[in-house]
Amino acid sequence: MRAVEAARGLLPVRRVVRIGVTGLARAGKTALLTSLAANLLAAGAGFPALPAFTERLAGRSFRAALAPSGSGELPRFDHHTHLAALADDPPHWPARTGAVSLLALDLTIGWRGYATPLPPRHIRLELLDYPGEWLLDLPLLTQNFDTWSAAALKRLDGRPEARDFLAFSHGLPATAPADEPLASAGHALYRATLERQRQAGLSMLQPGRFLMPAPGPQPPWLAFFPLTGSSPLAGLMEDRYDRYRTQVRADLVAPSFGQIDRLVVLADLLTALHAGPAAFADAAAALSDTARALHWQMRLPFLPDWMSGLAPLFGGIGRVAFAASKSDHVADRQRGNLANLTATLTATPHVESRAFAIASVRCTEDLVWTLDGRPISAVRGRVAGEARAGRSYPGEVPDRPPDAGFWQHPFLALPNFEPLRLTLAGRAGVPHIGLDALLTFLLEDLL
Amino acid sequence: MSETRVPPRFELEPGSITRLEPEQLPAIVLPSAGGPHTLGLALSGAGVLIAGLAVLDAGNFVADQFARSAVLGWATLGVAASGFGLIGAGAWRELRGLFGLRKVDKLRAALADPAQVRKAALDWLATLPEGAALSGAVAATNDPDAITALLRAGPAATLRARADALGRTAALQMFAAAAAVPSPALDGLIVAWRGARLVRQVAELHGMRPGTLGTVMLLRRVLTGAISVAATEMAANTVANAALSNPILGRLAGDVAGAGVAARRMVVLARATAAACSPLGTNGS
After folding, report:
1. In the CATH hierarchy, which fold is given to the domain comprising A2-130+260-363+421-446?
2. Per-domain residue ranges for chain B?
3. A413 near A279, Cβ under 8 Å?
4. Does residue A342 surpass a pLDDT of 80?
5. Are B10 and A425 in contact (CB < 8 Å)?
């Protein structure tokens, strides 16, 4: 694999590497993209913005520049506006993005030793803001309609947000006809349920395109909902579900949204810990199902399972980084636990993956706080809108899925700290935690 | 276990604070031997001995001449002062050449700083003959990236085109020389001489007048910068091909081994020197 990459690097052509950045809702995708681009540009200008990445380069020359948009179909990620918002005084968090966008950077990496005189390698790094909602469609590829319906209805059972939909679903006769009005009414109720669950902080919301539809007019086959039984209506729902899966598969290999070489999956596990056992279990299930579904690539029924491990050689997602975001809200000592917790939830076969605890834009500094006579590792930051410093110790972060004992003590909500000041308006990089290690892992085989 | 756990807490500190600053990341420092190199020390010592003893010797000689006769003394003093004055003038020019390089470094740093970019750009434009035409546009632009783009498209592109022209001329001369010189052993000497001259020409194009020492420093920088300029190898080939597109020269290129390679090197050298002398660095190309 390494030899193949090295041989590719010698060719006088620009290699295009597409990194999909996705994540569960409100995990900080926009901040990650902004910080990643700013720090790569800063590292290219000689600032020590990404120490682990620079160390990996081992003295080789490195330059980075924003690539022109060209004539592509995807909207360009507005890096300058987002960075300016962070650099502003007082700073603002980048606005939440609601559409797919792309940010491309041209990287130029020299050689070392006797190979120094060789022409440098050119890599176009495309960072694709991949909708987090769509990520949850991946598990559908390996589930038939009956399996998915049973799991979805089980998740909804007892949830207050699903009361109307469950009443409708339970009220359907066993021989419900395949009528369009019935299908539309059930779909509208199910979609409203998903919206309410998203507002309640839940993550496992399938199908993802119900919440983030693809651009363009909505096709009729999108109107389905989970339904068990063998009624004609269930048959219609199954047909539409299968059509939906075909579209998901097509999108994954489409030149615009698909063809992703590497993937970053972000999750705000600290907020999930605060939201309680149900929300955490939901986020954990979303992450685990996604991780399991990531070997969709090259999964042809006539090929033995071991061959899917060769998928990266033929294209497809070669590396996946699972990252717990906002790790600057807990002390350094607990970030290891956060990374371990993420790793436990995201073990995935067939794809090279690693778990990280990162903060795309650092807001705090570590401090030792004496609480109840005991020194505790905590963090300190400037509270947004207050102009005062706040000290925060939200609780212990477990290094594995928490047991019942953990939930006896509340895990505090994360305070709204404002980002640290950006040196040279962000041109010297954006303060972060662990972003250099994440980037080095993603591009390791190319460096 | 849970009884001994410290309950989570959040507290606001009294009094307002300014925005928190990031911790300085450790700069990556390459190991250094510490202090000047041995050869540098030895050469400095030799220089001090040669210059110092020469001055002392000349002083003694002038004093001796005054002892012999006032006329002889004044004449010797005049000769010594003229000689040392010329040496001093040469040294001053060398130093000015070195300062010119340092000025480029300062300008480059200022252009990378969003707070100083406009002033630095205007300062640079003021030193260029066609700079006045672009000054108004730079003064009216607020976006640092837009200012850099203006410089890149304007003076940097013009300077690069002129450096290319110088490189093409040198390439043609190298080609002719390689074809005309009877001994291949002389080729290397000609390449070295023409390369050094090309470096000085491109430096002068950028408003510098490097002396011998300045040229050596510039060559050293060009060699370092040539790694990143190697990216332009293909572009340089295109320029060289255009320069040698004459059918007769093309035929000769096939006949005279190494002539084409040396000619292409001149084009790359011109580009690398332009990158080393330009306040925009390799970003200018």
Report:
1. Rossmann fold (3.40.50)
2. 155-284
3. no
4. yes
5. no
pLDDT tens-digit map of A82-120: 999 998 888 888 877 666 788 899 999 888 777 777 788
Residue A393 contacts B, CB cutoff 8 Å: yes
pLDDT for B284 equals: 46
Q: From the candidates B1, B2, B3, B11, which should be mutated to test the interface with A, based on the most A CB atoms within 10 A?
A: B11
| A198: closest CA of chain B, how far (Å) | 27
Q: Is the separation of the CB atoms in B265 and B188 below 8 Å?
A: no
Residues of B in contact with A334 (CB under 8 A): none
Distances (CA, A) of B52 to A284, B48, B60, B80, B143: 79, 5, 12, 14, 54
- pLDDT tens digits for range A57-74: 888 888 898 888 766 777
In angstroms, the separation between the Cα of residue B159 and the nearest Cα of chain A is 22
Asked if A424 and B145 come within 8 Å (Cβ–Cβ), the reply is: no
Confidence category of residue B189, pLDDT binned at 50, 70, 90: confident
Q: Give me the residue spans of the domains in chain A.
A: 2-130+260-363+421-446, 138-251, 364-408
Contact at CB, B28 and A392, closer than 8 angstroms = no
Quick count: other Cβ atoms within 10 Å of Cβ B169?
16
- Which residues in chain A have their CB less than 8 angstroms from residue B281's CB? none
Q: How confident is the model at residue A324 (pLDDT cuts 50, 70, 90)?
A: very high
Q: Is the pLDDT of residue A9 over 60?
A: no
